[in-house]
Fold this sequence. Notes:
The chain has helices spanning about 40-55, 75-80, 80-90, 105-115, 130-145, 220-225, 230-235, 290-295, 315-320, 325-335, 355-360; strands at about 5, 25-30, 30-35, 70, 100-105, 155-160, 165-170, 175-180, 190-195, 205-210, 240-250, 260-265, 280, 305-310, 340-345, 370, 375-380, 385-390, 395-400. By secondary structure, it is an alpha/beta fold. It folds into two domains: about 5-215 and about 275-400, Metallo-beta-lactamase, Chain A, CATH 3.60.15; about 220-270, no CATH class. Helix 3 (about 80-90) packs parallel to helix 5 (about 130-145) and helix 10 (about 325-335) packs parallel to helix 11. The radius of gyration is 25 Å and the shape is globular. The structure holds zinc ion (ZN).
Amino acid sequence: MELEAHLLGTSSARPANGREVSGSIVIVGKYQIAIDAGEGFQTRLKKQAQVLKNAKWETRISHTRLDAIALTHGHLDHCWGVLPMLLSMGLDCKKNPLSVLAPLHHDAYIALVKDGMDAKMPDSVPTVDLINQMRFWWAHLFNKISPEDMFPIFWYTVSWIDGEEKWLQLDPQNGTVSQLSTPPKPIGPHSLTPHQTTHSVPSCGWRITSADHLGKFNAKRSAELGLSHNQISKLANGEDITYVATSATTSSATTGVISVANEILLASDFRGPSTSGVSILITGDTGADAPELLALAKAAPLNLLIHESTYSDSYQTNAINYLHSTSRDAAKVATKIAAENLVLTHYSSRFVKTEIPLTEAREDHPRVHAGEDGDIFQIERDGSLKIFRISDGSPSQIFEPF
Ligand SMILES: [Zn+2]
């Protein structure tokens, strides 16, 4: 398994019909990332962790193991669970650092750059903007847990100004705002990248791509050349080396003469072709025409798109008015960006069952799955997808999901 996602809430706006609000966990390599954390997220995470433990599942999840929380926007069904989970992390002695990544209104970005951490937010910045929520979290967090007991948290924000991605790192304890010239890299060699979406407040989806795999190292050739351990190690790590080639000639006139020649050995000649990582994108809330999402068509291939699907065709007007998507909108986006698989989530409380959204989406994309709380998605290195559903407290593979 190269990448695994746990969908821990598929309802929109409020818990309904046995579904909880937004929040997912993605596992890539040794890293665990939460994408959104609505109301009650830590409870859902613990419940899923217990299911995995009981099932002797290959991977284990825990709030104390999270490396990043990436938020899609400031509406409470996507982030009300962050503060209590942060407090629990502190109480449960989390050790490894956590990065919190949040999209901010562009005027919040400008105010922070100009006036620093205490900047007054202009009226254009919505009350639910994540800068206001983070300030609320900081006040509670640093009041409740003493600094020496606190695990390291890095606070990153992203805003778009004239389409350009702008990153800040905020340090609430030192009161500093730093502009970043390159995006943060909170999950080691893997990438976690925002894609701006269209909603009533600043919003984005998050794409997680596992690191490329190096091609196979040609050990046979290095042995034939009689290279030292040190030389092999350099080549294996991508470093070109100078190789002293020696050869003894055997013709009668020159018997015993050894010719010496320096040769540059290129590390790239000792590796087979590398293979690309696999990729998942989780949207958060979005209207149907998010230009940044559509621009993905030009980016790397996407194995799995988890897209909001608040409405069905009958409620198209609501989707347009409230900047949400119908399941057909989600399928059209998946087709336009050539996503191999689509999972629907974020259903309106109107949908007790998902047949209608699923049927409508399948008219526009061949591989659509209607997500439910607890569903697990595993993407293998070759891009193939396995889907598991929790039934009777344990995960069972769905063998014909499409
Ligand atoms: Zn929502």
